[in-house]
Each structure stands twice: as C-alpha cells, then as structure tokens.
C-alpha cells in the first residue's frame, strides 16, 4: 500500500474527494459520505485530518469500525500503527522480539507466554532481589555522601 504525508492528505477536503486519517491509516471516504447516518458535514469537517479522536469519542459500533477496511487506501507517513509483531511461540516463559516500522523506528516487545518459568532461566525472583538490593545499596550510599557533604 502507498504511504501518504499529512500534507498530501490535507489536499483532499471536498465532498467529491474526501480523505481522512484514522489510527495512522488513510481512507478515501468520498463514496461513503451520503450514506453516513450523521450526515455529510460531520465527516467533511474532518476531511484531510486525523479523525481518530472524534470517531472514538462518538461511540461508534463495531460495524462502523469494520467499514473502514472498504475505504483504506494507504498509510500515513511515519505511522507505526501498521506494525504487527510476530506471535509468540515455543516453550519459553517470555519471548523478546524487535519490530521495525516502515519509518525505521523500532521497538522491543516482550511477551509473557504465561508458561511457568524454569529455574536458572534468569527470570526467577532471586535475580530481582539481587537487583533490588543493589539499587537500595546505591541509593543509601548516595544519600550518605550527600548528607555527609552538607555538614
């Protein structure tokens, strides 16, 4: 699918050529305007802009959300809403993966598979306790030196 800039979408603001952005995706809703139960003006007031907040605040039905698929024409440049992370698999208690979007932004995702953690997996409570103890020790040392310096 093509990618559009905000500026490109903003050029489509008439009833005959009406585009909106919803959750980082671009939709040409021109053919839908006359069918909208709330009237044409509600949509044309948001033409060329992001309608996500207005749409969700109105309390639309699931059917209304599903209708977007029919009018989808591409993605908004820089949007990461189209990123789909791979589903976790295997026997691990947690799986990490990195997902990179079309704009080269990446995010690390950690899944908890709900499977029991095995001893020595590095995810047991002993590791957490060691880290917590180290944090307390560093904090106490910092406080000691800061208070000592004030005297």
Automatic annotation (TrEMBL):
GO terms for molecular function: heme binding; metal ion binding. Keywords: Heme, Iron, Membrane, Metal-binding, Transmembrane, Transmembrane helix. Pfam families: Cyt-b5. SMART domains: Cyt-b5. The chain crosses the membrane at residues 128-147. GO terms for cellular component: membrane. Its main location: membrane. It is found in: Membrane. Residues 1-77 form the Cytochrome b5 heme-binding domain. InterPro entries: Cyt_B5-like_heme/steroid-bd (IPR001199), Cyt_B5-like_heme/steroid_sf (IPR036400), Cyt_B5_heme-BS (IPR018506), Cytochrome_b5 (IPR050668). PROSITE patterns: CYTOCHROME_B5_1 (PS00191), CYTOCHROME_B5_2 (PS50255). It comes from the Eukaryota. Belongs to the cytochrome b5 family. NCBIfam families: LPXTG_anchor. PANTHER family: CYTOCHROME B5. This is Cytochrome b5. The lineage of its organism: Eukaryota, Sar, Stramenopiles, Bigyra, Labyrinthulomycetes.
């Amino acid at each position: 699918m093509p990618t559009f800039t905000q500026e490109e979408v903003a050029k489509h603001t008439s009833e005959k050529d009406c585009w909106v952005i919803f959750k980082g995706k671009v939709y040409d809703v021109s053919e839908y305007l006359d069918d909208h139960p709330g009237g044409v003006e509600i949509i044309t007031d948001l033409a060329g802009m992001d309608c996500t907040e207005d749409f969700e605040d109105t309390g639309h039905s699931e059917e209304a959300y599903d209708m977007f698929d029919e009018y989808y024409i591409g993605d908004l440049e820089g949007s990461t809403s189209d990123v789909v992370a791979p589903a976790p698999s295997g026997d691990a208690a947690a799986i990490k993966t990195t997902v990179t979007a079309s704009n080269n932004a990446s995010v690390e995702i950690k899944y908890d598979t709900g499977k029991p953690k095995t001893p020595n997996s590095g995810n047991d409570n002993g590791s957490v306790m060691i880290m917590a103890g180290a944090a307390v020790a560093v904090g106490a040392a910092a406080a000691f030196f800061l208070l000592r310096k004030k005297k």
